[in-house]
Specification:
The complex is a heterodimer of chains A (374) and B (300).
Chain A: H1 5-14, E1 27-31, E2 44-47, H2 50-60, E3 64-65, E4 68-69, E5 73-77, E6 83-92, E7 97-103, E8 116-119, H3 125-134, H4 140-158, E9 161-172, E10 175-178, E11 181-185, H5 209-220, E12 225-231, E13 236-240, H6 243-255, E14 262-267, H7 272-283, E15 290-297, H8 303-317, E16 323-328, H9 332-346, E17 350-353, H10 361-373
Parallel strand pairs in A: 13-15, 15-16, 16-17
Antiparallel strand pairs in A: 1-2, 1-5, 3-4, 6-7, 6-9, 7-8, 9-10, 9-11, 12-14
Helix pairs in contact in A: 3-4, 5-7, 7-8, 8-9
Chain B: E1 10-14, H1 19-31, E2 34-39, E3 47-48, E4 51-54, H2 57-63, E5 69-72, H3 79-88, E6 93-96, H4 103-115, E7 119-121, E8 128-130, E9 134-136, H5 144-147, E10 150-157, H6 160-172, E11 177-182, H7 193-201, E12 208-214, H8 219-229, E13 237-242, H9 257-262, H10 268-277, E14 281-282, H11 288-298
Parallel strand pairs in B: 1-2, 1-5, 2-4, 5-6, 6-7, 10-11, 10-12, 12-13, 13-14
Antiparallel strand pairs in B: 3-4, 8-9, 8-11
Helix pairs in contact in B: 3-4, 6-11, 8-10
Classes of the chains: A alpha+beta (374), B alpha/beta (300).
Chain lengths: 374, 300
């Protein structure tokens, strides 16, 4: 879960790190949105006094930054500093260890400056001293900054973060201060943390009605997954089963010249009703030119039970565009018998395939049918 | 031969009394896997599909010293401890079915695994199957003998469902499978593509290896590097990378670390490019794996 700056700072403070105070001589007002480059987007403003800060904060609320509406602002005292560093921690597949990325020139524009990577086999302090020495740091800064980086790394580990980014970490006369922080917490580890953050829409942007309808499918019933639905620009309805297979089939339809109308993914043996609702969402997008219901050979998902939902939607929508179904797995015999019946009953332009037809090859079949219809 | 699972596999299942594990255990036994014992703390003395259950791994290994492989089927919060328990009893081959294990736990396990020179496949792995010999994990379900035919092609996949689907396109082209291994798609993999490829190199039953990769991480890129470093490698690699369409989807940046460290190397198109440059046979559409194998092996 991606945290807002104020949430990340609260966690870091609990881990013994310094963050700016609430009172001071001058203030900074910051929009709490999950976005980069807030300053350029009007999400960071400076004020001479508390009153002005609060006024700026009120003006900032309701602003849209990177597709997200500003609901909260953070008002902090401005901090005088002599140096600003960029520091982040994340896991790295290259070495299968956490790594620190560091730049002695932090602040805005960091993506265009040089940053160095330190592989962390454990949280020993000497690793940070060695690293800082190699970066040209001298004297006491080596010790103090190493302690600060170690504290940050330990917070990253302790809090089960996927990402901790501090930009900048400011060097002040009173020590180091976290001026801005981003933190992405691993939800898989939430069982060992006592956390209760409000829901957030990290994707940003307005959701379409169909996306909202799909979202509700999983909220109302937790058996299996059938509520992921992202609307795209194309006109081929995509009813996709299985994670890896869904990605593979999206690539395949594009390869054969199709333009997907949506992305979705169902699995985990969802009940009939959920598959029905998802099918309705997909079929309700105007202007469809074809529909592809495709998945691998299921291990767990009951093909009859899920196909029942799809068939019910077909009976209601009676699509005139071409349809290809390719699916196999438990009770597929029964499911395909029912598909053949509905095809005949409604006179659908529909081709049916089991697993003797390669999954991605059936994309070509659909695109041929779509081509013939034009 | 084959890799990880074979006729000599003596399997322990940790978490055997759980709902999923107790349902999948008979499938493994029916397939021919020698499931010798199970462990669930507090449930010692019970049986699952005729397999005796013990409270601890130590007890299971004392009673069944032939155990050489463990399948971890415990909840995600107990997984790290279960792996340490298996290692503590000297088990060197471990496969984790469990999903959603915290990354930190996997990182902490990695050091111990290296120290003990143990092999861990997973987490989030549907398992490993060597057709005609044994299967470890739910791979292929209760119809594994239909889904997997014995042969000479090795499969290494990041996706469980697509492991079986990949076997199918291989078989449609007239080949069979030596071993199919789902390494899982987690950030920290117990076994990477390169490590699995190295196992296949040692296996005289395997004539070519198919890699099913995806977006994210750099394990696929490591294969390219490995091929570059080992020009004499006598094992053709056919690769398919899924998720290309995601490169054209709008994304939102949260922080700069990803951009600084990855520089786009985790994108499917980049992976395809480096693999191709390194001499791997990259296909654009999944079912082309079959014809590509045919082409590669007939010109050998």
């Amino acid at each position: 879960m991606k945290l807002y700056e104020n949430e990340a700072k609260k966690i870091l403070k609990e881990n013994g790190l310094n963050t700016p105070g609430q009172e001071g001589e001058s203030y900074v007002v910051k929009a709490q949105v999950l976005a980069n480059h807030r300053k350029e987007r009007g999400g960071i403003k400076f004020a001479e006094n508390r009153e002005e800060a609060e006024k700026l904060g009120e003006e900032m609320k309701g602003l849209e930054i990177d597709g997200q509406e500003v609901e909260n602002v953070l008002i902090e005292s401005q901090v005088d500093f002599s140096e600003e560093y960029y520091v982040s921690f994340m896991y790295d597949t290259e070495t299968r260890n956490p790594v620190m990325i560091f730049s002695s020139e932090g602040g805005t524009g960091i993506e265009d400056r040089k940053a160095s990577k330190l592989v962390l086999e454990d949280d020993s302090q000497f690793r940070f001293r060695q690293f800082l020495k190699s970066q040209g740091f001298e004297g006491k800064t080596i010790i103090k900054l190493a302690m600060e980086l170690q504290d940050l790394f330990q917070a990253f580990l302790q809090e089960d973060a996927r990402l901790l980014e501090v930009n900048p970490l400011a060097k002040t006369v009173d020590g180091f201060v976290v001026l801005d922080a981003m933190m992405d917490l691993e939800e898989d580890a939430s069982y060992r943390h006592d956390r209760d953050y409000p829901e957030r829409n990290a994707e940003g942007g307005e959701k379409t009605d169909r996306e909202k309808r799909a979202e509700k499918i999983d909220q109302d019933d937790h058996r299996g997954v059938a509520g992921k639905y992202t609307e795209l620009d194309g006109d081929i309805g995509m009813m996709l089963a299985g994670g890896g297979a869904s990605l593979t089939n999206m690539d395949a339809i594009i390869e054969y010249g199709g333009k997907p109308a949506n992305y979705t993914e169902y699995g985990g043996n969802p009940p009939t009703e959920k598959v029905y609702k998802l099918s309705k969402v997909i079929m309700s997008k105007p202007g469809l030119k074809g529909l592809w219901h495709v998945g691998g050979t299921a291990n767990n998902t009951d093909v009859e039970r899920t196909m029942d939902g799809f068939i019910k939607a077909l009976q209601e929508e009676k699509p005139e565009y071409p349809i290809v179904v390719r699916r196999d797995g438990p009770h597929a015999d029964e499911a395909f018998e029912k598909l053949r019946e509905v095809k005949e009953e409604l006179n659908l332009d529909m081709k049916l395939f089991r697993n003797d037809k390669p999954m991605t090859e059936s994309a070509e079949d659909l695109m041929e049918m779509v081509g013939e219809k034009q | 031969m084959s890799i990880f699972a074979d006729e000599d596999t003596k399997l322990l299942i940790q978490g055997i009394t759980g709902r999923a594990a107790s349902e999948k255990t008979p499938h493994m036994i029916e397939y021919g896997t020698d499931v010798v014992a199970g462990v669930t703390p507090g449930k010692g003395g019970q049986e699952v599909a005729g397999v005796p259950v013990y409270d601890t791994v130590r007890e299971a290994v004392e009673e069944h010293p032939e155990i050489n492989t463990s399948l971890i089927y415990v909840p995600h919060f107990a997984a790290k401890d279960a792996v340490l328990e298996a290692l503590n009893s000297g088990i060197k081959n471990i496969n984790i079915t469990t999903e959603r294990i915290p990354t930190r736990d996997m990182w902490e396990l990695r050091e111990e695994l290296e120290k003990q020179e143990a092999t861990l496949v997973g987490p989030t792995s549907v398992g490993v199957i060597s057709p005609g010999k044994a299967k470890v994990g739910p791979i292929g379900g209760n119809k594994a003998e239909q889904a997997y035919e014995k042969g000479s092609i090795g499969i290494i996949s990041k996706s469980g469902g697509m492991t079986t689907e990949t076997a199918q396109v291989v078989q449609n082209a007239g080949f069979g499978i030596s071993t199919a291994m789902d390494i899982g798609g987690d950030k920290i993999a117990g076994t990477t593509f390169v490590e699995a490829l190295q196992m296949f190199e040692e296996d005289n039953q395997t004539d070519a290896v198919v890699i099913f990769g995806e977006l994210g991480g750099t394990y696929e890129n490591q294969v390219a590097q490995y091929l570059d470093d080992n020009p004499d490698l006598d094992l053709p690699v056919v690769a398919f990378i899924t998720g290309k369409f995601t490169e054209n989807m709008p994304t939102q940046q949260y922080g700069h670390a990803g951009a600084v460290i990855r520089k786009g190397q985790d994108k499917p198109s980049h992976k395809e490019k480096v693999l191709r440059e390194a001499g791997a046979h990259v296909v654009e559409v999944h079912h082309e794996i079959g014809s590509k194998l045919d082409e590669v092996l007939s010109t050998e």
